[in-house]
């Protein structure tokens, strides 16, 4: 049976894996310094997520109703597949943005939001959480995709993801 400590540790690792995917994109597209910098920034956002979860872990600030083994296994498989696709030698810009959409709109982000609920008791920590929130990531992806000339079909996927995220954040307020 998973303990809160082991679950938070696993989700810290998931956020680190997300950061590693974005770091690989930064390296992959290093000939375009602006695009590489964008992916580096996305990686740093994921590092912030990992840091906030690690803080919760160190302070024993655990959310109720933690993810179960099947949810965790599903996310582990999701990351395995993303990492495999991200390591493809001929990864294109559109594929990288598509993978980022999948990552930013995946279940990992809603679980992260739930796991960091205990941070709401601190105004400072709540602000840190909001700064690294999902709608900001999707907005950044959409703006970058436009800036870097990503195909229209990928832009539509990003716009759809933004609208879904906006609807989710409004329904939880």
Description:
- The chain has about 170 residues and is mainly alpha-helical.
- It has a single domain, classed as Up-down Bundle (Ferritin).
- The protein contains 8 helices and no strands.
- The protein has helices at about 5-30, 35-60, 70-85, 95-105, 105-115, 125-130, 135-145, 150-170.
- It is globular.
Q: Quick summary of this structure?
A:
The protein is mainly α and 173 residues long. 77% of the residues lie in helices and 0% in strands.
Tally of individual helices: 8
Report the C-alpha radius of gyration, rounded.
16 Å
Judging from the principal axes of the Cα atoms, what is the shape?
Answer: globular
Which stretches of 5+ consecutive residues score pLDDT under 50?
A: 168-173
Query: What is the CATH domain class?
Result: Mainly Alpha
Mean pLDDT: 86
CATH topology name: Ferritin
* Element-level helix/strand string: HHHHHHHH
Shape-level CATH architecture? Up-down Bundle
**Strand tally, please?**
0
Structural class: mainly alpha
Biggest β-sheet, characterized?
A: none
Strand content: under 5%
State the separation between the terminal residues, measured CA to CA: 33 Å
How many domains?
A: 1
Helix content: over 70%
Layout: helices, strands, pairs:
Layout lengths: L3 H25 L4 H26 L10 H18 L6 H12 L2 H9 L7 H9 L2 H14 L4 H20 L2
Helix pairs in contact: 1-2, 1-3, 4-7, 4-8, 7-8
